[in-house]
């Protein structure tokens, strides 16, 4: 009985165990075959696990060939061609060669370096960019003013008067009249069109030469509009642009020195609440470079390898519609160090921890 039981039990156990081992061996062999069958184009390393998890298969490891080298070279050339300073440097080189072999006047092109590399030149360009549309609108207004005065001259003051030392203004056609007014009007004085000195056009009495007096008032009116209104508008726009740029730079400098770039909290809060103060916070708690490295990590990491937090940040960046929306994942107005310090202070005082 014992033998039979043992045999039966042993036989059954051996059979069951053998079946399990056989099944496990078969499964392992299948997995091994699946993970090593990359040569015949079926599955390769990691593909079996990816298939079991319902993920796309990983890329096949291989050596780089000439096609990869050509693609890298093409991408490098495209990147260089899109780089504006590359073309600017080439133009400087061409200007230097032209200045050496053709004419030294080509070297004038090198003065553009002032607007790209010097702070004063950069500020001038920024001022023009900031107030560019306002300057353009004012220029259009100036052209319309000159056009209006040209129309009046062509219709009323085209003929010479007794005070003129020669012919009247060059207004045989309206095109000629408009061009002459544009050239002289830009300089702020259209009296040169009438071939007479302004002080010679004043008659001895009010009743004499009314047309000449009207023309004198006409010229003075243009002078006041151009020099007292339009010119001051141009100067005011440029000056206000410089002031706005200076205020922005001062604000940026002040924020950089007195506020955390990540959480935007004041320096005085950290100096009061945490040990080590503001310097400790921006170097070890909210180091801006760490956040830059994190963004680079997101860019360099495959999406399927993200952690939960990384996936959330990636989704925020991808779905952001504005630049402000891209920063919603940052701990603005929040700092764990300040919160922990407040909790410790509340615990020592026996009160509830702040939220």
Description:
- Residues 71-249 form the Ion transport domain.
- This is Ion transport domain-containing protein.
- It is found in: Membrane.
- It is a multi-pass membrane protein.
- The chain crosses the membrane at residues 69-88, 94-116, 136-157, 217-242.
- It is built from 14 helices and no strands.
- The chain is elongated.
- The protein starts with a helix and ends in a 6-residue tail after the last helix.
- The longest helix is centred in the middle third of the chain and has 49 residues, at 210-258.
- Helix 7 packs antiparallel against helix 9.
- It is 65% helix and 0% strand.
- The protein has helices at 2-35, 47-52, 66-81, 84-101, 113-117, 119-130, 132-155, 174-185, 210-258, 267-273, 277-285, 288-300, 308-319, 336-349.
- It has four domains: 2-52; 66-117, no CATH class; 132-253, no CATH class; 267-349, no CATH class.
- With 355 residues, the chain is mostly helical.
Total helices: the number is 14
Helix content estimate: 55-70%
The rounded Rg comes to 41 Å
Number of individual domains: 4
General form: elongated
Pfam families: Ion_trans
Protein name: Ion transport domain-containing protein
GO molecular function: monoatomic ion channel activity
Main location: membrane
